Amino acid sequence: MGPDKVLVGTWGGGLNIFNKKTETFRKIVSDPINPNSISGDFIYSIFTDKTDIMWIGTDFMGVNKYNQLRSSFIHYKYDPLNPNGLNNNSVTAILEDSRGIFWLGTAGGGLNRFNYDNASFSFFVHEPQNPITITNNVIKALCEDTGGNIWVATELGLNRLNPETGDIKRYFPNPDDPNSLSFHNIYSLYVDRKGDLWVGTYSGGLNKYNSKTDQFINYRHDPADPTSISDNYIWNIYEDTKGNFWIGTDNGGLNLFDRNTGKFTRFKNDPDNPHSILS
Known about the structure:
Order of helices and strands: EEEEEEEEEEEEEEEEEEEEEEE
Helix content: under 10%
Strand content: 35-45%
Strand order of the largest sheet: 4-5-6-7
Shape: globular
Radius of gyration: 20 Å
Structural class: mainly beta
Number of strands: 23
């Protein structure tokens, strides 16, 4: 797409492409009479791969691969007659790892691994009686660490997958262990430029994983501490090109985190300040 374009997925309005030079949007929406249009207008995930191909995960309508030359989409959808096809049509997360392997997280079908050679899928799904499967089939986020492990965030626990062996290690909160994962429902994952894994939970604050000890450091909101994180519901984690570390929350605005001091600077909406963050 190029550095002058920003991809924006909407919930019902399809895909929007923002041109930073012209400050205009190009809208791409589903067209029932065009089989090559995007398959759905409710966008869960957007990913641009190493060859600059754009992938769009939708709610209930599978995943789309965009052909820029033809301005058309290839659709991958669940087909009950195809055991090697995508196993769930709600694609919540997309990742291409360092080996060039594609991983798709779904809202009900667990983790799908895409085989580029024959456009087939293999699966990692939760099995209630099998403790070496992933913890849950509703996946919220995916990332790869510096060791090549794939981390799988679900609404019921965190998983570390070794893609070479298929081995899975599970992480759950343990109220008797302050160094365990702080909450089971995880919305965001991020590996920073130092190689540290960060885990954003939905009500348990921010977690930093220590790979040496296999434990977590937790950062929670403290009403008595204005330098604590502003909210325990973490939506997004991002490190910018200058090394600033940003945390987006559900109801506490935006946080700038100083990883050296462990202190947060908060940016919230101020109705009386037109230069404050929007909401």
